[in-house]
């Protein structure tokens, strides 16, 4: 069995925000990993270029003989300060020619050791990175200070030994600081991005939620909902297409309901055809006997001059005219009823406002209401939309209403029209104060020519066919109908579908 229990809705806004937060967090994490794995190598490459540039400056100055000049010494100090390196040039007698350090004794000592290949310190570590004819680039560890160095040493073109050194501890600290900074800034950026994403996606999710609501209502066959967004993007196109789909579905359902009613009637048509013809001829012949006998009798009386005075002749003529009119009305109603029962009367299922139909009919029946001296109560404000053949439904309302006016009694005389149960099926009821219908007569009310009070029915000109027309009409639309006795009167009702 299908589970129709609604599932928890996951917000697209929150999903977008979470995705942005995860992407930013992943990017920050990737940057931290790259810092740890690649930044040191990149720094080593950069520092090697710095050492090479410093070597070229020293070599050029020594070749030009400007090593001892004040300008060169200032240049050496500037390079040392900018790139955080130490530089030393000595002569063949181990005397300092140029030094960026005030205390150059340690640099001189280390340079001599490298030239002669001596190792004086325990746990000293030297890793040669690049070795050329004039210089060597190496990474060394000084156990005395616990510092790693990147060094270049060798001989200038004038044969003077040189040493260029830079500490590597700074890059490791820089990597740690950079990672911490990225973590703090990244978390802040992710939080801000998440907030802005929630705000920005509202513009996207609002029409999506509206479309979801429309689709849900369409699934419940409610086609009143319309997309009202003005977006000129894919969402706007989708919304307009859903509007067209809603209109098309409503039209198609209307056609299907009409076709379904026609199909149901066709299934029963063959079985009922012969029985209805026989019943029709029997009822017509029976009901026409009385008016035909009256017409023939009074016509014969006129012919034989039974009453010679003008007043009697006029009375005879009025009786003949009344009975002929009654026969005409009966034939018209019988023809209409016969068409409905045979299924030849087209039933067009439409969606219309039953409240407006009833109000319009009450307005048109003001004269009948005044003649009956009745008070009509209809308090529904509507609208209430129902499915049915609007013309035939109006005929049902007219039959119930005129029937109520003819039988209304009591003090005060009241006719009340109500509409109840509007969610899927609306019940329209017409109640009139007065006498109850005998219980034994209730089951015969819908039969053709059946009259509870034949004298009174004939008094107001009734034919006994009105409720039969109601029955045929409601059965043609496959809807229920009936009558109920109340302590103070009688209620006639019928039902129409409200849900699409």
Description of the molecule:
- It is a single chain.
- This protein is an alpha+beta fold and 500 residues long.
- It has two domains: 12-175, Beta-Lactamase, CATH 3.30.450; 259-497, Histidine kinase-like ATPase, C-terminal domain (Heat Shock Protein 90, 2-Layer Sandwich), CATH 3.30.565.
- Helices cover 58% and strands 16% of the residues.
- The chain is built from twelve helices and 13 strands.
- It has helices at residues 12-64, 70-83, 105-116, 169-219, 234-303, 310-342, 354-364, 366-372, 390-407, 439-442, 454-459, 466-476; strands at residues 86-90, 96-99, 125-131, 135-142, 147-155, 161-167, 350-353, 375-377, 385-388, 414-420, 425-433, 481-486, 489-497.
- The protein has a six-stranded antiparallel beta sheet with strand order 2-1-6-5-4-3, sandwiched between helices. The protein has a five-stranded mixed beta sheet with strand order 8-10-11-13-12, covered by helices on one side. Strands 7-9 form a two-stranded antiparallel ribbon.
- Strand 4 and strand 5 form a beta hairpin.
- Helix 4 runs parallel beside helix 5 and helix 9 (390-407) runs antiparallel to helix 12 (466-476).
- It is rod-shaped, with a radius of gyration of 54 Å.
- The model is unreliable at 454-461 (pLDDT under 50).
Describe, in short, the structure shown.
With 500 residues, the chain is of the alpha+beta class. The chain contains twelve helices and 13 strands.
């Amino acid at each position: 069995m299908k589970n129709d229990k609604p599932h928890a809705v996951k917000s697209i806004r929150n999903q977008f925000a979470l995705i942005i937060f995860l992407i930013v967090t992943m990017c920050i994490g990737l940057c931290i990993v790259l810092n740890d794995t690649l930044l040191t190598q990149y720094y080593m490459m950069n520092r090697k270029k710095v050492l090479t540039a410093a070597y070229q400056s020293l070599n050029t100055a020594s070749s030009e003989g400007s090593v001892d000049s004040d300008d060169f010494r200032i240049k050496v100090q500037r390079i040392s300060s900018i790139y955080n390196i130490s530089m030393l040039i000595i002569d063949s007698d181990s005397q300092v020619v140029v030094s960026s350090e005030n205390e150059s004794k340690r640099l001189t000592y280390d340079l001599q050791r490298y030239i002669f290949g001596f190792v004086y310190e325990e746990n000293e570590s030297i890793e040669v990175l690049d070795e050329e004819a004039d210089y060597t680039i190496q990474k060394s560890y000084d156990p005395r200070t616990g510092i790693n160095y990147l060094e270049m040493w060798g001989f200038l073109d004038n044969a003077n030994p040189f040493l260029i050194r830079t500490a590597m501890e700074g890059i490791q600290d820089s990597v740690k600081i950079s990672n911490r900074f990225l973590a703090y800034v990244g978390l802040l950026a992710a939080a801000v991005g998440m907030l802005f994403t929630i705000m920005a996606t509202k513009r996207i999710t609002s029409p999506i939620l509206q479309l979801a609501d429309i689709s849900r209502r369409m699934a419940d066959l409610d086609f009143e909902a319309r997309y009202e967004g003005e977006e000129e993007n894919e969402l706007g196109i989708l919304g307009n297409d859903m509007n067209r789909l809603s209109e098309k579905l409503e039209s198609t359902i209307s056609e299907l309901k009409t076709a379904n009613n026609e199909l149901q009637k066709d299934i029963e048509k063959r079985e009922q055809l012969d029985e209805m013809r026989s019943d029709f001829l029997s009822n017509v012949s029976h009901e026409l006997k009385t008016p035909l006998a009256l017409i023939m009798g009074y016509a014969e009386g006129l012919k034989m001059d039974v009453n010679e005075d003008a007043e009697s002749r006029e009375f005879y003529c009025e009786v003949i005219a009344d009975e002929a009119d009654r026969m005409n009305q009966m034939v018209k109603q019988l023809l209409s009823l016969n068409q409905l029962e045979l299924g030849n009367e087209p039933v067009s299922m439409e969606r219309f406002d039953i409240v407006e139909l009833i109000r319009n009919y009450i307005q048109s029946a003001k004269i009948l209401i005044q003649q009956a001296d009745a008070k009509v109560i209809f308090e529904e404000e509507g609208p209430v939309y129902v499915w049915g053949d609007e013309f035939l439904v109006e005929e049902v309302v007219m039959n119930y209403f005129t029937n109520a006016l003819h039988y209304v009694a009591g003090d005060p005389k009241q006719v009340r029209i109500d509409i109840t149960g509007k969610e899927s099926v609306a019940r329209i009821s017409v109640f009139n104060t007065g006498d109850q219908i005998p219980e034994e007569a209730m089951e015969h009310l819908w039969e053709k020519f059946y009259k509870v009070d034949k004298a009174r029915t004939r008094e107001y000109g009734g034919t006994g066919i009105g409720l039969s027309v109601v029955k045929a009409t409601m059965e043609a639309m496959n809807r229920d109908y009936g009558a109920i006795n109340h302590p103070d009167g009688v209620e006639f009702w019928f039902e129409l579908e409200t849900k699409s």
